[in-house]
Amino acid sequence: MDVLWLDQSDVQSLLDMQSAIEAVEKGFRQHGLKKVQMPAKSYLYFEKHNGDLRTMPVYMEEEDIAGVKIVNVHPDNHEKGLPTVMAVIVLNSTQTGAPLAIMDGTFVTDMRTGAAGGVAAKYLARKDSHVIGMVGVGEQARTQLLALSRVMDIQEVKLACRNMSHCDHFEKDMSHLISCDFLKKNNIKDVCDCDILVTTTPVREPVVRSEWVREGTHINAIGADAKGKEELDPQLLLRAKVIVDDMVQASHSGEMNVPLSKGLITEKDIYCELGEIVAGIHPGRESDDEITIFDSTGLAVQDIVTANMIYQKALEQGIGQDIRMF
Questions:
Q1: What is the pLDDT along the chain (326 residues), one digit of tens a residue?
Q2: What distance in Å separates the CA atoms of residue 237 and residue 39, rounded to the nearest whole number?
Q3: Can you list the positions of beta strands (E) in 257-319?
Q4: How distant is the alpha carbon of residue 96 from its chain centre?
Q5: Full-prediction pTM beyond 0.70?
Q6: Residue 133 in 3-state DSSP?
Q7: Neighbour tally for 171: CB within 10 Å
Q8: What contacts 243, CB < 8 A, 6 or more positions away?
Q9: Catalytic, out of 69, 185, 229, 241
Q10: CA torsion angle for 150, 191, 131, 253 (degrees, to 10)?
Q11: CA distances (Å), origin 322, targets 7, 70, 96, 290, 318
Q12: Backbone torsions φ then ψ of 302, nearest 5 degrees
């Protein structure tokens, strides 16, 4: 039987941010309605290589689509000329289990994670949010900002990173896509004076202090996606309405994982899952004074709902290469 092979250029030609947001929002809604089978992602840790490998399976029952993503995170890859994150997605037939498509998941991962931030801001940020603060300006920061530009009117972006030249490159790249002012700041504290704060760093010690964040701020906490990582002061979590993408994953690999393990917070301090807000089970932002935090760990349902959309478009447009598997 033939399997459709979609390389990165194929995937890029078929996936834009607006369609990614629409797909991811649908995925969150199904997750919130408990209509997906999605075991927590499993990890293999390569400590001597400073990296890990993750597998992420899911079955979306209502859509009758299934698949798995295999993805790595190796922070030192930049020095080797390789992406920090690389991924492959396999879509499977639910009738036979046979593979239907194998595609690049690296671009999908960037886009669907950015899209998740956009969906979170849509439901949790103040409607008059115009100023974005960004801690970290890597690839993930780019898709986060791109997604935010699709759900709100961005007027100003404040940037903070360890290497100011990276801020310069970020502004140069993003100014072609978003019409707004870019301001480079010398410290993270100044960046926190914003309407929406986005953190995309791989740090293992908090870099955002509670006292720097004003009431009414929404935060997309993206960087903590494995055990031991955290970007936010635990005291900030106690001040905020905390929303996770998945309770199980967040407890062992999200922004919550370290404070939970130390007993600084409990699961009772977590408001709900984002999908439950998207599905209308719980309200999102309830006042302009609330601090809201979205803890993103990355869900397989985001990958597969996006990959299935790409697959359907590829079939319609005749894109990709058929390869014989059996």
A1: 799 999 999 999 999 999 999 999 999 999 999 999 999 889 999 999 999 999 999 999 999 999 999 999 998 998 999 988 899 999 999 999 999 999 999 999 999 999 999 999 999 999 999 999 999 998 899 999 999 999 999 999 999 977 788 899 999 999 999 999 999 998 999 999 999 999 999 889 999 999 999 999 999 999 988 789 999 999 999 999 999 999 999 988 889 999 999 999 999 999 999 999 999 999 999 999 999 999 999 999 999 999 999 999 999 999 999 999 88
A2: 26
A3: 270-273, 292-295
A4: 31
A5: yes
A6: strand
A7: 17
A8: 120, 124, 270, 271, 272, 273, 274, 277, 284, 292, 293, 294, 295
A9: 69
A10: 40
A11: 12, 21, 18, 51, 10
A12: -65, -40
Yes or no: say if 7 and 34 are a contact pair by the CB < 8 Å rule.
no
Distance CA 145, CA 7 (A): 25
CA 255, 236, 27, 136 dihedral sign is: negative
Q: Which residue has the tokens 């072609």?
A: 176
Q: Calculate the CA 195 to chain-centre distance.
A: 19
Distance CA 240, CA 10 (A): 41
β-strand partners of 241: 292
Catalytic residue check, 41: no
